[in-house]
Amino acid sequence: MRTLADVAVEAAGCTKCRLASGRTQVVFGVGNPDADLLFVGEAPGFHEDKQGEPFVGAAGQLLTRMLREVLGREREDVYICNVLKCRPPGNRDPQDDEIDACTPWLIEQVSLIQPRVISTLGNFATKFVLNTQQGITRMRGRTYAWHGRTVIPTFHPAAILHGGGERSRQFGELVEDFELIRDTLAELERPPEPVVVPDAGSASSIEVEDQLQLF
Ligand code: URA
C-alpha cells in the first residue's frame, strides 16, 4: 500500500508547475502520519524552503507555542503542511494554476492521514479548503462539516505577528480557536453513551433472558 512517505518521495521530484525551478526543495509536510489533527497553511516561506519543513520561521514558532500551551501537544503529535508545497518567489500569493497542480498532493495527504479535524491557517487555506470567498475574520470561531471531518479555520500566525502580536484582539481569538480545536477533538474521542434497552429496567441481559424463559 502507498504510504505518506512514498508520496513524499514522489512529490520531492515534482515539476508540475513553474515553482519547481525556483525552489531549494519541496516542503511536503511534517508530523505524525496517523494524526487526528492536520494544519494547512498557505505556502513555504524563506526558512521553510531552506530547511524543507513547514512553519519553522517566526509564524511557525507561534504555531508551536499554541500547540503546546493550548492543546498540550508537540509538533510531532499533529501533521503540518501547506496548500502549496513549493515557495512562491518573494512570498507572492499562489496562482490558480500552481494550486491546481499542487492540489493532488494535499488530497493524498488528507486521504492517507485521515485526520478528524483540519485547521486551516489564514485566508488562503480557508478559502481553498472550504471553497468560499468569505474572509478569515468571518469564517473563524466555529466548526464546519467537510467530507466527514471537521474544519476549524483560524488566523494565520504570521498575520497575528504582523498585526499587533499578543496584545491584539486577534491573538485572543487565535487562542479561542485553538481551544475550540482542543474541545472538538475531546468531544470526538469521547466513547459513545451506552445503549439503554427500553423497559429492561436495571436487569442485565442474562436476567432478562431468565425471565423470558419463565413463560
Ligand atoms: N507560512 C505558511 O503558510 N506556511 C509555512 O510553512 C510558513 C509560513
Please give a quick description of this structure.
The protein is an alpha/beta fold. It has one domain: Uracil-DNA Glycosylase, subunit E. Helix content is 45%, strand content 10%.
CATH superfamily: Uracil-DNA glycosylase-like domain
Identify low-pLDDT runs.
211-215
Unique bound compounds = uracil
Rg from Cα: 22 Å
Oligomer: single chain
| SS-based class | alpha/beta
Instruction: Tell me the domain tally.
Output: 1
CATH architecture: 3-Layer(aba) Sandwich
Coarse shape: globular
Strand order of the largest sheet: 1-3-2-4-6-5
Distance between the termini: 56 Å
**Please, how many helices?**
9
CATH fold topology: Uracil-DNA Glycosylase, subunit E
Q: What's the average pLDDT?
A: 93
The first-level CATH class is given as: Alpha Beta
Number of strands: 6
Strand percentage lies at 5-15%
Protein model, in words:
The structure is a single chain. With 215 residues, the chain is α/β, with parallel strands linked by helices. The chain has one domain: Uracil-DNA Glycosylase, subunit E, CATH 3.40.470. It is 45% helix and 10% strand. It contains nine helices and six strands. The protein has helices at residues 4-12, 46-51, 58-71, 96-113, 122-130, 136-139, 157-162, 169-189, 205-213, and strands at 30-31, 37-41, 79-82, 117-120, 144-146, 149-151. It has a six-stranded mixed β-sheet, with helices on both faces. Helix 3 (58-71) packs across helix 8. The radius of gyration is 22 Å and the shape is globular. Mean pLDDT is 93; it is low at 211-215. Bound molecules: uracil (URA). Uracil binds at residues 41-45, 48, 54-55, 57, 59, 82, 158.
